[in-house]
UniProtKB/TrEMBL annotation:
Pfam hit, one: POR
UniProt KW Oxidoreductase keyword: yes
Membrane-crossing segments per the record: none
UniProt cross-references to PANTHER family, sorted A to Z: INDOLEPYRUVATE OXIDOREDUCTASE SUBUNIT IORB (PTHR43854:SF1)
Top-level division of the source organism's lineage: Bacteria
Protein name as it appears in the record: Indolepyruvate ferredoxin oxidoreductase beta subunit
Gene Ontology MF term list: oxidoreductase activity, acting on the aldehyde or oxo group of donors
The keyword Repeat appears for this protein: no
Length: 192
């Protein structure tokens, strides 16, 4: 049995998924894991899908997570969870930000935002759902939503023994360290 863990982070361009993955990868490396990360930007500047794949363990040879291999799927936007659910292992976990960013076809009236995504996912998987954007707004900066999501991921995977405060200090710009540490802790509080 492999000791490698697979994390798939998905969302929409502009949500800070790349920074979230860097915080995660830096924390895992600081704990002594071999870490590989892959990112796909797609049409990120136009509100398109963004995914990052983080794999860690004793020795990791490839950054790519195939279908049915993700231990955890972290979705920064709920429609993206539905698009990527096929990458989750049967006993995997899902962490979803209950947040909507309409795609171009929805904005132009060619399609409707799908209803019942979270309810459908709840039928089939272990899922934690919360409103990371509202938490980030309460902290005073919606842009910290990504770090709220990292906090939830860290707690969901039992990785809260790593010094994440130090990781945040070493990863984000100095003037944003304090608010991002608060965001990380608020995210951790969302997972029981």
């Amino acid at each position: 049995m492999s000791d490698i863990k697979n994390i798939l982070l998905v969302g929409v361009g502009g949500q800070g998924i790349i920074l979230a993955s860097k915080i995660l990868a830096n924390g895992l490396m600081s704990a002594g894991y071999d870490v590989k990360m892959s990112e796909v930007h797609g049409m990120a500047q136009r509100g398109g899908s963004v995914t990052t794949q983080v794999r860690f363990g004793k020795k990791v040879y490839s950054p790519i997570i195939g279908r049915g291999q993700a231990d955890i799927l972290v979705s920064f936007e709920k429609m993206e969870a539905g698009k990527w659910i096929d990458h989750l292992k049967k006993d995997g976990k899902v962490v979803v930000n209950d947040y909507e960013i309409p795609s171009a076809p929805i904005l132009t009236g060619q399609a409707e935002y799908p209803k019942g995504i979270i309810e459908e996912l709840q039928k089939y998987t272990d899922i934690t759902v919360f409103k990371a954007a509202e938490i980030a707004k309460e902290l005073g900066n919606i842009k910290t939503m990504n770090v709220v999501m990292v906090g939830a991921l860290v707690k969901a995977m039992g990785l809260d023994n790593i010094n994440w405060d130090e990781v945040v200090k070493n990863t984000v710009k100095e003037k944003f360290v304090g608010i991002n540490i608060k965001a990380l802790r608020k995210g951790m509080e969302q997972v029981k």
